[in-house]
Amino acid sequence: MKKFKMGMATQIFLGLILGVAVGAIWFGNPAVERYLQPIGDLFLRLIKMIVIPIVVSSLIVGVAGAGNGKKIGRLGFRTILYFEIITTFAILLGLLLGNLLHPGEGVHFSNHEKTDISQYVQSEKEAGKTSIADTFLHIVPTNFFHSLADGDMLAIICFTVLFALGVSAIGEKGKPVLSFFEATSQAMFHVVNLVMKVAPFGVFALIGVTVSKFGFSSLLSLGKLVLLVYFALAFFLFVIFGIVGKLAGIHILKFLAYIKDELLLAFSTSSSETVLPRVMEKMEKIGCPKAIVSFVIPIGYTFNLDGSVLYQAIATLFLAQVYGIDLSIGQQISLIVVLMITSKGMAAVPGTSFVVLLATLGTIGIPSEGLAFIAGVDRIMDMARTVVNLTGNALAAVVMSKWEGEYNMIKGQAELNKLGPQDIKMSS
């Protein structure tokens, strides 16, 4: 008799369903948050514990093995250029749908519960003091160990790339250092597999707390906004990424099926950080060189937030329509520029999407108080935009590998062709 084995995606989905059920049954009961939040927090802490060691060790191994600084500089320029192009498409799509469908018409905030957003206001004030020059200067750390402690990914990447180039430059003397980080990388991926065994419990706890706090009433009250955001994100995921994937020689449905476990986990936890190590590992298996994967994906977590900027564009127009503010073409063009800048400059600030929205609304004369009324459904929309953010960064590794002429198409197709029809159907 064949032993039944439940896959990771099934386990996570089961945790998701049970979490929703527990949250719905005990809606409004503070005991749910008291007992389940520590379990969810424990899972998130386990993931955060291993992210930086994996990024540092993988980047050193990849860059040191890749060779010269000229190649890394070219890769960096192409990566940022690609991210900016895709981000622009996301913003334009958000503005197009917002102008065509008018999600804010007929919505009256007097009927909705107001949520405290003081924490985001404070973050926006702090971030607003930072100029564009300061943002770029911040990439270069004054103290690498301080950046490690703060989890400042861009500063960590900057130092690590330079260090890896130094290891490569000293030749034979650098081999012991390279061997150490190769072993570290392999050991950390083993730790990832151990941590992922508790992922279903983390998903169960985090979803249970979310549903028990917000319930379904908040979703229904602002349903038009939520539905539009989900439609826009789905369109971007299947159509825009579908076109990008086709240009890179990847079928988007097969690609989504390939990373379905990671997408489901990211959706459940509203955090793409939880799957960073596994996504990096899978992109290597699909034919992307370690040097490109370990460089492109961590940078994308800060610079390539396609789902977030798409949501921000729609939310801005939604609030403008609620307040009866007619934004001119010039104002909407300035909105594109502001979103492109602020989404990068504030990427490391907690509550990024709300902070960026606060900064954006002030520049075009929309009252920021409106955010307090949509805060209740933000987590529901955050789950979907995290999926798009994650897919965009994973796909970027394939695109940049293809652009650099280093993508192993045969290896990639062989890996994707292992998927059965049921896997592809589940991802769609």
From TrEMBL:
> A Pfam family name for this chain?
SDF
Keywords assigned by UniProt, alphabetized: Cell membrane, Membrane, Symport, Transmembrane, Transmembrane helix, Transport
Please, which domain of life does this record's source organism belong to?
Bacteria
Please give, as recorded in its UniProt entry, the membrane topology of this protein.
Multi-pass membrane protein
Keyword match tRNA processing: no
Which PANTHER family does the UniProt record give?
PROTON/GLUTAMATE-ASPARTATE SYMPORTER, PROTON_GLUTAMATE-ASPARTATE SYMPORTER
Protein's recorded name: Cation:dicarboxylase symporter family transporter
Upper lineage: Bacteria, Bacillati, Bacillota, Bacilli, Bacillales
